[in-house]
Every structure is written in structure tokens, then in C-alpha cells.
Amino acid sequence: MNKKAVALLSGGLDSTLAIKLMLDQGIEVHALNFLTVFCNCTSKGCKHQATKVAEEFNVPIKVMNITKEYMEVVKNPKYPRGRNMNPCIDCRIFTFKKAKEFMDEISASFIITGEVMGQRPMSQRKQAIMTIEKESELQGLIVRPLSAKFFEPTLPEQAGIIDREKLLDIDGRQRVRQIALAKEFGINDYPCPAGGCLLTDENFSTRLKDLLKYIPDYDISDLHLLKVGRHFRISDNLKFIVGRDEKENERLMTFAKDGDTILDILDIPSPIGLARRGRSLSVPYTQKDTELMASVLARYSDLDGKSAIVSYKTLPAESWQNAQISPASDNILGSFKI
To answer: What mean pLDDT comes out for the span 237-263?
Structure first.
């Protein structure tokens, strides 16, 4: 057993502190960061923060986008979900298996995580932690520097590679001790101390369920669009998304592709709407569908209840068509909103 380890680095406070504690014991750390479309930990992005931490500690980092593979875990978890679409136990098993592959690839001997006993209700209970460790075939090889005293000594500790006396006994959801440690170590920039996952969000989970139901052969842009705007299910084969602000309007246009219909009100301040069919592109819109989407768009524009001319085009067409439309009522919005 050598002193080389793979550290799971989210960019959050706990994983940052775990790496610092191991570096102080002379461990050769190789950071591993996982990305999915469900990451929601910083305004600048999980990859940015994790890379920044790795650079500050002068440790190599590998960033893996695992969205495609991870979706199979999201759709078919072995263990119970949380309150929403979050398969927390299966998620940890999946990422630890990935970490084990990387550990073997670089001939490292163990894995480091920032896990804290009792911090997360699904995956950081002791029984769940032991289940995850067993399922990922990493018994005795996961070092948790922040909560090590709650577990039996790991193989690196038994081998004398890690000094157990310098490991900690932090538990619970409060981060008072972590914040104090950060101050002691001079770590001042940790914008996502707790991290974040959109699968724990009720509204996002509802949108994801809708996507899996109506577009089982989704693509990555469908997943990204779940994070943008207000969503409306117009029919089994048609969804309509309305931007909330200029930034979301720009994102909608970024993900727009041939076959999508763009709706806009060109002569007043207005959000942009994007209509996307399921994979049955041969099924046409009806005029009623178009008028409904136009009325929804008008409802979120600066119209003061007046009717307006809503322009629309189906990509890749460049010319606009127009419809004179009154804003939708609140009842209409409620009946179609996802």
C-alpha cells in the first residue's frame, strides 16, 4: 500500500478540508471531480470551483462528465430515493465505483472523501455509508478525515500511512467546526460549503419526471432545458418553455435546434418562448397549439392585459409568422404548467 490517494473533490468546503488534512500528512493526492447536469453548487459552476481548489493545493485533477451513465442510475435506482428524484445511495455507489476505476488506473491505494457523519439524511447515515462502501467494493479503503473517529480504522490507518490521531470526529449538519478549520487553514473562498443537487428539488424533479414520461429518448439539451424558464405541457408531443429574464432567453436560444419553434413579441419587452416536440417530429402543431403558446407568452410580457401580435417561426426557417393574441388567464397557465 502506497501513499497515493484519489480524493473526491466537489469544490465544497468539506471535500476541500479533507484534502488539506491529507496533504498535511504527506499523502499524494489526485483529485477527481464529477459533473452532471444536476450540479447546482456555485454560480460559476462545480468544475470551476473544484479546479480552483486543486490549483491552490497544487494537486492534479481529473474532471469527468458522467451525465449519460448517471441517468441510468437516476431512472432505475436499487435503493429508495429521497423525497424527490434523488437516488442518493445509488449515486454514491456509482461515483465510488468510478473513483475505484480511477484509483486502479493511477495505482493509488485508497480514496479520500469529505463525508461528514449525519450531514445528509439519505447517504451519510452510518448504515448507508457502510452499505455504499460494501457495494462499491471499497471496504477499508475510504478515508473520511472529517469523521474518521466514528468508523473503524481504515487499511491506510492500520498500515501507518495515515495518523489516526490527526483525524476528526465532526458530525451533524452544522458546519461550525468546518468553518473554524477553514479559518485556521486560511481557506476563505468556499462559495458552496454544502454543495447542491437539483434532483433534490421538487420543481426540477417534476420536470424530469415529465421529460422521462413524454420523451424517453431525450438528449442532453432536453436535460439542460429543465433548468431554464417556466415549463408548460401543451400536449403529449409538445412542451413550451418561457424564459424568465434576458439571461434565460439567451440560454433558450443556445439550446434551440431545428424543429423547435421560437415565439417572441417583437415590439414590446417580452420573454422568448421555445416549443419543442417529442421525437415524433412528423406530428404537426395545430393552430390551436400555436395560439395557446402565444397566449402563454403574452401573459408574461408587458401588455397590461391587452392583446398583442406574437411572432413565431420553426427553425431553421428565418421568416416570422404572426398571430394576434390576448394573454392567457391564470386558470389556463395553471392547467398546463409543469
So the answer is: 95
